[in-house]
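User: Please fill in residues for this 528-position structure.
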């Protein structure tokens, strides 16, 4: 499958024009095979949950298939038939069958479609699953009819992000204009500095966003079967990822002049309150546990290359793009940076030229930092000069002995100051981390785990709607599921070619959206 990959069954040939020698940019869809070959394979269909209804299709014999889909031989050119032909290749194709059925069949006919109780992950498509002359007729709008509008898929965005259009503007920020003039700048100088342009969606991006929102609502309502079972998460093996620096080291002068201001009763009380609150919340433990993803990298690329790629393309990439970003935006930016480098694409130099859904307060700086890290050889670039990023990466690679100090944690330390800080001053990071380590030891926790639990508690105290933790592996699961549904790819293809090999785009849910995850092992109280 490495060099013989075929796009999902809903794709049309014209969506994948050859771009180069890489098999991932030369993908051409082959049409579905003959009925005899389809019938011979019918018993091997993978079962999965159909988006929007929770209905599942499963293993069918040719006879069962014929009974379930009576209109197929009677009207071979209607949308129902097109949906059926598209479905022969795999998972999203079944959604196409349902889309065609509900768009053309009566409610009584639609009710004949059988349900299968079990739901398994999507299968991987092979060249044998495609053939003559229907690919171009495959409908672009998929989903369930009736009371639910069909959800459009975008096979054209399986290999490229949506196109970016010109920005809106120029606009002038009046507050910045005023501030610059107060600093003594002339009207012309202040206007130039306060002028900005905003990203505006192209029609393609707007349509894409609309489908993303529909899928978000469906995933919120019905949940989904995750690629990685979050209840079985475990940490990566830190012995393969030694730290690049000791981030607790500070100069004697810095310690003497600042420790008394940082290590205060107010700061420790805030940390303790956050920890106690976090302990009472569901799903706050083992936030950094990414051993399942590490294993997937190793299974795909081998022990040495797999661990190196996991550290650079996930842990290091997440660390490089973490500035001012929530976990979802952080992950999307990390995968986007990897994609740009792997595909040899030019990095946009202004924030409004990054494609949807890439964004964030500091997106341009984050992407630039990501490219600097890759230029320097990868994760080794993250050293004592970047202590927060260094520790963030270390936490993902299983080092539980270091603590990440971000904006949320800084609120505990400096929230009572006249001018609270959002990050430690240069050279001061170790002072904050030392207090965190002390509090973790008192609680009988590792610094990594103490920080993760405390972070959730502090977040709840500042944002009451945040009532449950969401470990990083769940953000990865959401992105895999969302990308599969939007593009028609299988989840295995998204994991392998998107996250591990960085050859295709990754999409995700709206920031901070928690999805119910369907799993035999999941604790129900975490997924209400």
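Assistant: Residues filled in for all 528 positions:
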């Amino acid at each position: 499958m490495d060099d013989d990959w075929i796009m999902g069954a809903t794709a049309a040939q014209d969506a994948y024009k050859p771009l180069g020698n890489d098999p991932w940019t030369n993908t051409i869809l082959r049409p579905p095979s003959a009925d005899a070959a389809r019938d011979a394979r019918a018993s091997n269909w993978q079962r999965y949950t159909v988006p929007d209804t929770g209905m599942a299709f499963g293993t069918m014999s040719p006879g069962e298939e014929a009974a379930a889909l009576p209109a197929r031989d009677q009207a071979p050119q209607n949308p129902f038939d097109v949906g059926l032909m598209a479905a022969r290749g795999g998972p999203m194709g079944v959604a196409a069958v349902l889309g065609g059925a509900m768009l053309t069949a009566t409610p009584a006919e639609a009710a004949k479609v059988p349900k299968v109780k079990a739901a398994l992950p999507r299968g991987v498509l092979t060249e044998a699953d495609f053939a003559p002359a229907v690919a171009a007729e495959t409908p672009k709008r998929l989903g369930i009819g009736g009371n639910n509008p069909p959800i459009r898929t975008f096979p054209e965005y399986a290999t490229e992000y949506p196109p970016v259009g010109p920005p809106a503007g120029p606009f002038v920020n009046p507050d910045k204009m005023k501030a610059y003039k107060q600093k003594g700048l002339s009207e012309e100088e202040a206007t130039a500095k306060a002028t900005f342009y905003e990203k505006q969606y192209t029609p393609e991006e707007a349509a894409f966003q609309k489908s993303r929102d529909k899928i978000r609502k469906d995933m919120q309502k019905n949940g989904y079967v995750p690629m990685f079972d979050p209840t079985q998460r475990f940490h990566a093996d830190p012995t393969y990822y030694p730290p690049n620096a000791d981030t607790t080291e500070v100069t004697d002068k810095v310690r003497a002049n600042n420790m008394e201001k940082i290590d205060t009763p107010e700061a420790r009380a805030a940390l303790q309150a956050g920890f106690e609150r976090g302990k009472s919340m569901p799903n706050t433990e083992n936030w950094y546990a990414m051993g399942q993803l590490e294993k997937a990298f190793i299974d795909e690329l081998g022990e040495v290359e797999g661990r190196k790629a996991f550290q650079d393309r996930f842990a290091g990439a997440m660390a490089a793009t973490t500035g001012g970003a929530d976990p979802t935006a952080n992950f999307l930016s990390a995968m986007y940076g990897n994609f740009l480098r792997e595909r040899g694409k030019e990095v946009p130099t202004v924030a409004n030229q990054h494609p949807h859904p890439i964004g964030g307060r500091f997106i341009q700086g984050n992407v630039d930092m990501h490219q600097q890290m890759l230029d320097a050889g990868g994760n080794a670039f993250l050293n004592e000069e970047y202590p927060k990023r260094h520790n963030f990466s270390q936490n993902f690679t299983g080092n539980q002995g270091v603590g990440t100090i971000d904006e949320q944690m800084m609120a505990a330390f400096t929230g009572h100051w006249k001018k609270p800080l959002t990050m430690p001053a240069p050279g001061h990071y170790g002072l904050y981390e030392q207090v965190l380590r002390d509090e973790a030891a008192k609680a009988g926790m590792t610094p990594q785990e103490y920080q993760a639990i405390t972070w959730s508690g502090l977040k709840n105290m500042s944002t009451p709607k945040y009532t449950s933790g969401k470990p990083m592996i769940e953000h990865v699961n959401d992105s895999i599921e969302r990308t599969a549904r939007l593009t028609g790819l299988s989840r295995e293809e998204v994991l392998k070619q998107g996250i591990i090999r960085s050859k295709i785009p990754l999409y995700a849910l709206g920031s901070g959206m928690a999805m119910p995850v369907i799993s035999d092992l999941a604790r129900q109280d975490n997924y209400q």
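For context: The two ends are 38 Å apart (CA to CA).
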